[in-house]
Specification:
Elements: H1 3-49, H2 53-94, H3 96-102, H4 113-116, H5 148-151
Helix pairs in contact: 1-2
Length: about 160
């Protein structure tokens, strides 16, 4: 494997590990907020049963805020897990060893440029722009034979 492919594959694997750690962190935070929701909901009920409506309202509000954080962390955890799976797929795609398992690399050979860019493609009409001092390329296909000497570019 080339150094560049090793680097890219390693980078993707590193990013996959980072995203996996982030997903685990967010799921742990969601679990923590879930336990706090349960705790503050119980406290709100206890205060409500005791007739302490102000304290009950405070704990209900705290439980609602923990619920919002729980939902946020669940979403972030799922997004990070999806990113980790994508980075792992990218690492596999960058790994030549894995490619050789999926494809016969001996069959992948360069072909003629006309096989890549058909001659009827507008891109095949692109011509080089010469640098200063360089002889300009001349298309002599459309010039009548009796006028070819006027457009002939001499080699240096």
């Amino acid at each position: 494997m080339s150094k560049a492919r090793e680097h890219v594959s390693g980078l993707y694997r590193h990013m996959a590990k980072r995203d996996t750690r982030d997903a685990e962190h967010h799921l742990a935070e969601a679990k923590h907020h879930s336990s706090l929701i349960e705790h503050h909901t119980k406290l709100a009920k206890l205060h409500s049963d005791a007739g302490e409506d102000e304290q009950s309202d405070i704990h209900s509000e705290i439980a609602q805020r923990h619920n919002a954080e729980h939902t946020r962390h669940l979403g972030l955890g799922e997004a990070c897990a999806a990113d980790a799976r994508e980075m792992d797929e990218c690492a596999k795609a960058a790994d030549v060893g894995d490619l050789s398992k999926r494809f016969n690399l001996d069959d992948v050979m360069p072909t003629a440029a006309t096989a890549v860019i058909p001659t009827d493609n507008p891109m095949s009409k692109i011509r080089a722009v010469p640098r200063i001092g360089q002889p300009s390329p001349v298309d002599s296909h459309d010039v009548p034979p009796e006028l070819e000497r006027f457009i002939k570019v001499e080699e240096w």
